[in-house]
Automatic annotation (TrEMBL):
Highest rank taxon of the organism: Eukaryota
Protein name: Uncharacterized protein
Originating organism: Helicotheca tamesis
Keyword Coiled coil: no
InterPro entries according to UniProt: Ankyrin_rpt, Ankyrin_rpt-contain_sf
RNA-binding listed as a keyword: no
PANTHER family per record: ANKYRIN-2 ISOFORM X1, MOLTING PROTEIN MLT-4
Keywords for the protein's UniProt record, in alphabetical order: ANK repeat, Repeat
Amino acid sequence: MTDNNKHVAKRRKVENYELYDLLNLNERNEEDRKKLDNDAVIRVVQQKPKLAAQEYSFSLYDSCVPLIKAIMLRAPVEVIDALCCPEALSWTTRALHEALKHSASYDVIALLLEKQPNAIKEKDSRDFTILHVACYDRAPLEIVSLLLDRWPEATKEKTWIDDTPLHVACHVGVSVEVVSLLLDRYPEATKEKNRRGDTPLHVA
């Protein structure tokens, strides 16, 4: 069976295609993202809530719940809220990562944190916290501030190579305002060294 046939076969396991068809757009293409019918997504989920809990193969290499795909398509907070069923919320850590990667709004980030407060403390395979990811993706000041308000101690967390959020922020070149905020919350971060012996200043 070819990869494409496997994709089709996996899609056929889904009970209903309505939500899949609405969200099956290319998130990397701006024109495609504009085709997202937000009202239709909300209407389908209201009529058939179980569809929001199903996993769909939106690509040959990945399957996810509609919440994740909607975030990747930069859907507004009303759509994200409609897709936040209990099953989908088990994906909140990835949802937050995707939201930061795809420049989601402050309201979307705040909603996800409100739905699953503990997700902010979970780490990925590189031991990145959500704050590390926010710094890496150059999130705006208001979002970094939101994350710090929800978990002030996040400034002290380290990745698998002992990078603090300030290391990451300095390495990718975030705004001066974000660096100042991180320093204000944890001044001692300037003295922290990673496994290579580098302080944040060394990696800037």
